[in-house]
Write a structure and sequence with these properties.
alpha/beta, six-stranded mixed β-sheet, four-stranded antiparallel β-sheet, 9 helices, 10 strands
Length: 296
């Protein structure tokens, strides 16, 4: 077995532990490469049967069109259940206030919609594609990470996970966030995608599109992006290393249109994967503060 086999076996084991320990789990699906990899692993864990959980997507309304199109294609191809929580509903209900201004983003508003969706459907475990190498707050997470009855995360309440023994015991109202690929790196994910020939949204590969240079990064133009007379719109060849809200997910200049090119580019990169996420740059502890509030 090579190292990818070991990572795959560990992830499949964790997914089966979720199915065995929890009554009503869900797989949180963003349409990004990590959640797509989780879906592929779930196929290996549970086929030819159905998944023991639905796919859940929290839609900001400002997603990349390519991501939404891929999500719908994949769900139809799989024949699995998809549940969508809409941030717009949270705005319409007055539960959140949409930020205004040039750099406004709905990304942080997802937390309320996610917690409402968990409560509405009674999910006791939510599987996600977060990895420890992405960001220092995520490096603190256990694979089974308990959230309290308010959906909040307390880094001081982490449970030991010795010898890959995972404790899913929770009190009523609590839920567990589960990270089967926590021990993977960005490069591991791409090598696995190449080995398994996993389909991805086109935005992960080099393509020409309109972008604007803002706060030291390229943002794709979109109806939800506020553009004024100071902004200069250009057409460039770019791709995205991570997928999120269009207003805060930056592109990188790239000619990498094949998997081997992407892998070589990542090996040579001096910027972290989430270095292209402007929402992580609000403060040094931005991710940890959002996680404490219930962000995935």
């Amino acid at each position: 077995m090579d190292y990818l086999d070991h990572l795959e076996a560990e992830a499949i084991y964790i997914l089966r532990e979720v199915a065995g320990q929890f009554e009503n789990p869900a797989l949180l699906f963003s349409g990004g490469k990590d959640s797509i990899t989780l879906v592929h692993l779930a196929k290996k864990a549970f086929r030819p049967g159905k998944f023991p959980f639905p796919l859940v997507h929290i839609d900001t309304g400002h997603n990349f069109p390519e991501t939404i199109a891929f999500r719908d294609w994949l769900v139809e191809h799989l024949g699995e259940k998809l549940i969508v929580g809409y941030v717009q509903d949270s705005i319409d209900q007055g539960k959140v206030i949409e930020p205004k201004g040039k750099n406004a983003s709905r990304n942080a508003l997802q937390t309320v919609t996610l917690l409402d969706t968990i409560e509405k459907y009674g999910f006791d475990a939510c599987i996600g594609g977060a990895r420890r190498d992405e960001e220092k707050a995520r490096a603190k997470e256990r694979i089974f990470s308990v959230r309290d009855e308010f959906g909040q995360w307390d880094p001081k309440r982490q449970r030991p996970e010795l010898w890959n023994i995972f404790n899913g015991k929770i009190n009523k109202g609590e839920n567990v966030r589960v990270f089967p690929i926590s021990n993977w790196t960005e490069l591991d994910v791409w090598n696995y995608i190449k080995r398994e020939n996993i389909a991805l949204p086109s935005i992960y590969f080099s393509h020409e599109r309109e972008v604007v240079w803002r706060n030291g990064q390229w943002l794709a133009t979109a109806p939800c992006l506020h553009i004024d007379e100071e902004d200069v719109v250009e057409r460039r060849y770019v791709r995205f290393r991570t997928v999120g809200d269009m207003t805060c997910t930056a592109a990188i200049s790239s000619e990498a249109s094949e998997l081997d090119d992407i892998i070589a580019e990542i090996k040579a990169s001096t910027m972290s994967e989430r270095g292209a996420r402007m929402d992580d740059k609000v403060s040094e502890a931005a991710m940890e503060e959002r996680k404490k509030q219930g962000y995935f």
